[in-house]
């Protein structure tokens, strides 16, 4: 994790209650309070770049805390490392919050948008995220010799489509995790042959009333 003492001294354009909301949510998720400083530094960068690059429709930092940061971190108990691929990461969600929470794991953040990957490289540099690699590519064209333990997406596409375009990136015992909203979108009929939904997890995100879902998909044995 980046030096939280240094980051806590960095200026953030947020009133105190934004940090308080984040600290409260981290506590509810059972996560270390030291994550607060680097996560706020990330939101600060996202807010600043968003004005020019339109990286997210969420503009208020208070909403970013719940809708982006805590929503991403709620999936953490179901993520298996040490090699994780975030497909269609956009402005780094869920990849950046997860990488901050698990500095011992290696994360690849994949997106086809040049502005988004440019932003993510800046984030990785400024936050000192040595466990993050940013790749500008379409997922169906991306290849790795070694598969990933977890391939995760957040509102990337329908679960069946996600499985078809990203399944080749899973390792032999890897898993796909599709983060979904109120609609779990876990219809097994939509999956390509050889894949199955093994679990649909309900996620409670601090500060959000709606239940989120995480669909876990693996290759048939």
Q: What does this entry look like structurally?
A:
There is one protein chain. With 221 residues, this protein is α/β, with parallel strands linked by helices. It has one domain (4-219): Rossmann fold. The chain is 35% helix and 23% strand. The protein has helices spanning 4-8, 16-28, 36-53, 61-73, 95-101, 114-127, 159-166, and strands at residues 83-87, 106-111, 132-136, 148-154, 170-180, 195-203, 212-219. Strands 3-2-1-4-5-7-6 form a 7-stranded mixed sheet, sandwiched between helices. Helix 6 (114-127) links the parallel strand 2 (106-111) and strand 3 (132-136). The longest helix has 18 residues, at 36-53. The termini are far apart. Residues 3-11 have low confidence and may be disordered.
